[in-house]
Amino acid sequence: MPPNPQTTGSDPAVLTVVTRNFGTLEVRPDQIIWLNPGLLGFTRYHRYVLIEHSRESPFLWLQSLDKSDLAFVVLDPRKLLPDYQPGNLPQVMKELGVTHPEDLKVLVILTIPPDKPQEMTANLMGPVVINLRNRQGKQLVVEDPRYSHKHRVLPG
Amino acid sequence: MLILTRKAGEGLFIGDDIRLTVLEIRGKQIRLGIEAPANVVVLREEIYRRIQEENLQAAKARNEDVQEVAQLLKQE
Q: Quick check: B61 contacting A, CB < 8 Å?
């Protein structure tokens, strides 16, 4: 069993999570993102938090709060393709209950081969969409011939 | 594996809220209708496996590699 997040003594609502990459994190309930269903392959895990990689970096970490060593590198796909569309946008917004377009966060998951980071790819077929208003999200599957699950980010 | 025989127009339930219907049989192809709650993932097997495998690979990312790609991207 993975170690479960535990509540701290000072504020019972704050989760303390010991992570692989970020040491001990304290997460407030209003920072928790719920993915339902969870990511394919990890459907048991629903609670995540977004962490900035660094101020100058475009990357974010999507860190699981249910499994401390589970984290994904994510990126705003518009940094790769300015006109990227996560499938049928009105339908996506309806499913997530998004009423204002600015409340919809779209992220793509990056795969970075160990020791070959220049070969990193972005999964444009499986974007993660989040309603920032209620922090509910899910992974979509976009079947569009323009979007590969292994979109090369850097030139070879 | 549970194996059932169904004709076109017949269906089956998986639990209380997933309903599968055989809509049409045409040569080697079968058209299926699926009714399931919104939080149930329904995908063609090859698509499901592709996304799942990519997620499994993505979960191996290491902080030092992200550091490096951030540098590489800056040089672009």
A: yes
